[in-house]
Amino acid sequence: xxxxxxxxxxxxxxxxxxxxxxxxxxxxxxxxxxxxxxxxxxxxxxxxxxxxxxxxxxxxxxxxxxxxxxxxxxxxxxxxxxxxxxxxxxxxxxxxxxxxxxxxxxxxxxxxxxxxxxxxxxxxxxxxxxxxxxxxxxxxxxxxxxxxxxxxxxxxxxxxxxxxxxxxxxxxxxxxxxxxxxxxxxxxxxxxxxxxxxxxxxxxxxxxxxxxxx
Length: 214
Fold this sequence. Notes:
Layout: E1 5-7, H1 9-16, H2 25-35, E2 41-44, H3 45-70, H4 87-97, H5 102-126, E3 130-132, H6 140-147, H7 153-166, E4 173-176, H8 184-197, E5 207-210
Parallel strand pairs: 1-2, 1-4, 2-3, 4-5
């Protein structure tokens, strides 16, 4: 029997960004996985929050790139609004669009955000079977235990939600496209860490399916 899928935010983001014949391999893989849905799709509220955070982040990146297009001397690195981790995305976007007319670029960026948001809304409405673990019900001690190994707080909350939901359920898949925190070696290491340090809690880990490594 096919297992249900607990989806990480990056899989959904890649799915929403899909463009026929234009997308990177991992985007194609995520789009194919969701389009060829085999069983139930589960998402947690921490993932839903991340999806809408991405829309906000995209708006910030677009505004900053437009400032640079309008004024070549504007320094993206000194922006008060652009987190350091988004700098490479903004730089790449600027280089790709610096010759585009400002008004056309504003329209293009607005259209991209609209399309992305529509795809996210359609996904949540048409593809998701179960929404689980409200953010306020995520166990802080479990997040803290995961954070011993994984630095990214959002990832810790998402995995904590998966562990809480998995507890009394048949084994499901944790489906991700994260090459860092949830790569197969890191995930095995995390499981061993829990077996050694939190064996009394008897946490049951979902089966990892990392599309980056498929």
